[in-house]
Amino acid sequence: MASTGSAPPALPRHVAVIMDGNGRWAALRGLPRVEGHRMGVRAVRAVSECARELGIPYLTLYAFSLENWGRPEPEVRTLMALLQEFLGSELPDLLRHGIRLRVIGEIPSLPLAVRQILSRTMSATEGNAGMTLTLGLSYAGRNEIVRAARALAADAAAGTIRPEAVTEDVFASRLDTAGMPDPDLVIRTSGEIRVSNFLLWQSAYAEYVFTDVLWPDFGKSEFLQALEEYTRRHRRYGLTGEQAGAPPAK
Ligand code: FPP
Question: Do 231 and 10 form a contact (C-beta atoms < 8 A)?
């Protein structure tokens, strides 16, 4: 259930990012696309560090969509290798800073080596109470909703849940994001203005910030700028501006 809006919001509890523009960043420099992804990992580190330093409790990054499997095989292979490398090198930092790693998406479709390192990193960090860093891997919002619906339908068929007991909260508890607050702010880089199957259920009342900056160029100052834009928004959750505490229109 969405809470009632009031004055401009403080820092978001949950920021989600559609990291876009790696390929174009590389093309602009005459480099292969994978070089853009490599530089994208640097931006992942910079933004994660900034979010943690600011005390933002949840950061979710769309790293690989279910649709991305359709990209050329060498690109997919490089992305999986970068992911493995990232997870392998990041564990000491995650532990030092109390960060918990989570993953959302159709995990069984990931290569075994990636699943293994994901599972090791998630177990090693599951007791951490600092920021939760969630990676969207093999993720698609419609697919997530269908998997949740299927699980509930199976429970109903088995007689363990009554159809009328399926509320919004029960449904949300079957999504990959179970237990996490909905994103307050969704950032998309690279000038594309679309949602691309990301957190469809969870973003019902999210604020969006779109920036032309390509993901490998997105760093702390761009992140702070997006947060600043968010704090200037007035969230209304379907109420009137007056009800939600917005300043009167001039
Ligand atoms: C979109 O840019 C980006 C991706 C499909 C991959 C994002 C991956 C990373 C930032 C690196 C790996 C991530 C982690 C967490 C280690 P695009 O390739 O669609 O760019 P384009 O639209 O310019 O072609």
Answer: yes
